């Protein structure tokens, strides 16, 4: 109902939290063509990208370090 009420208003969603919740929010936004950005929660021991502990796979096949390339990504970029 809220999405229908706001059809003429530009919307964006910003999300952080547990991975299952972010996935659900991302899927909902993508299904309604609402732009969404996710702050991915991954352990970042060094914070510099040296240890490679925070690497995630993106939809385009790239592997990126959350601590240096993120931690915020567009919903359509993230693979689950």
Quick structural gist:
This protein is of the alpha+beta class.
As a percent range, the share of helical residues equals 25-40%
Number of extended strands: 5
Number of helices: 3
String of helices and strands: HEHEEEHE
Overall domain count:
1
Please summarize the sheet with the most strands.
3 strands, mixed
| Cα radius of gyration in angstroms | 14 Å
Strand order of the largest sheet: 1-2-5
Strand content: 15-25%
Indicate the structural class: alpha+beta
Description:
The chain is of the alpha+beta class. The chain has helices spanning 2-5, 19-31, 66-69; strands at residues 13-16, 36-39, 55-57, 63-65, 72-74. The strands form 2 sheets. It has a 3-stranded mixed sheet, covered by helices on one side. Strand 1 (13-16), helix 2 (19-31) and strand 2 form a beta-alpha-beta unit.
Give the topology.
Elements: H1 2-5, E1 13-16, H2 19-31, E2 36-39, E3 55-57, E4 63-65, H3 66-69, E5 72-74
Parallel strand pairs: 1-2
Antiparallel strand pairs: 2-5, 3-4
Features:
80 residues, alpha+beta, 3-stranded mixed sheet, two-stranded antiparallel ribbon
């Amino acid at each position: 109902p809220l999405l229908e009420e706001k059809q003429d208003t530009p919307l964006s969603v910003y999300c952080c939290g547990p991975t299952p919740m972010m996935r659900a929010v991302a899927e909902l936004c993508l299904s309604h063509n609402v732009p969404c950005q996710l702050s991915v929660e991954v352990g970042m021991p060094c914070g510099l990208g040296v240890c490679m502990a925070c690497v995630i796979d993106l939809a385009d096949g790239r592997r990126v370090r959350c601590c240096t390339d993120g931690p915020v990504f567009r919903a359509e970029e993230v693979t689950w």
